[in-house]
Every structure is written in C-alpha cells, then in structure tokens.
C-alpha cells in the first residue's frame, strides 16, 4: 500500500550511543584507598601499642643501662616479675626522688652559672650523681644475681640460651 493513509515503512531503530558501564572506581583510586586504610591502621596500631605497653603507676621500669637491660630481657617471666618486685622493695632506698632530683639539677645549674666558674665544684656534683647511680646499679645487680641463683640448672641453661639469642640480635642490628 502506498498513499497518504499508508503506514510509514518501518525503519530499523538507530542504536543509541551506548555509554560504557563502569564497574567500580579506577585502579589508581582503589590503590590510593587501600594505602590510606593501611596507613590509618598503622597509626591506630601504634597508638594502641603505646597505650597497651604503658606500665601501671606502681610498677618499676626495667633497667635503663643497655647491658643490664639485656640481662633483664632474657629473664623468664616469673623471674622477671620477682626482679621487678625486688626493685619495688628497694625503690624507697634507691628510687629516684623527684624533689631530690630537682634539687640536684638546680645545684648543678647554679655551679654551671657561677662566675667565676669552679671546675672542682662541677666535678663534685657529677661525682655525687654518679655515686647515686652506682648504688642503684649495684642494687639491680644484686637482685639479678639472686634471681639467677634461684633458678634450676635447666632454667639457667634456658636463660643463657635466651641471653645468647638476644646478644646475637643486638650484634646483627649493629651490623657486627
């Protein structure tokens, strides 16, 4: 049929421009998100670790002397606890009194600022402070010997093995 009343011939529909369908964020964005998440978890881990490693106010910190710290770290848990208990017992005698420490620092500062400067006075201040440190170190040494003497031969062997392992780690860390 042709004519004015005839239906228009069907023309095939033209395909509409298809837009590509995205299936997620681009790779660089996903990598950036992953890196950000990893960094956030690292920061949270550091904060939680710092909080968890804090000691109770009445506990005693392990020795600050590097050599003594190695011996302390090698102690098994129950002997380490007994060592810390011994330090707590001796704290009043060998602990650091904040007021006394402040007075020591003030006296040393006064000697340093004196005009004329007196080297012998500074030497005296340093010797006094060193004696206090030596007393505390000797008390810690005594407690360590007591702890090792209380060990069985097997415990001492395990302690020696652990100390040797720690010394090896330190040597590797220092590049020796």
Helicity level, as a percent range?
55-70%
Number of helices: 6
The structure class reads mainly alpha
Query: How many domain modules?
Result: 2
Number of strands: 0
Main sheet record: none
* Overall 3D shape: elongated
User: What would the average pLDDT be, to the nearest integer?
Assistant: 75
- C-alpha termini separation: 101 Å
Strand content: under 5%
Q: Spell the H/E element sequence.
A: HHHHHH
Return residue spans where pLDDT drops below 50 for at least 5 consecutive residues. 55-63
Radius of gyration over C-alpha positions, nearest whole angstrom = 36 Å
Describe the structure.
This protein is an all-alpha fold. It has helices at 27-52, 66-74, 77-94, 98-113, 119-149, 153-174. Helix 2 packs across helix 6, helix 3 packs antiparallel against helix 5 (119-149) and helix 4 (98-113) packs antiparallel against helix 5 (119-149). It contains six helices and no strands. It starts with 26 loop residues before the first helix and ends with a helix. The protein folds into two domains: 27-56; 66-174, no CATH class.
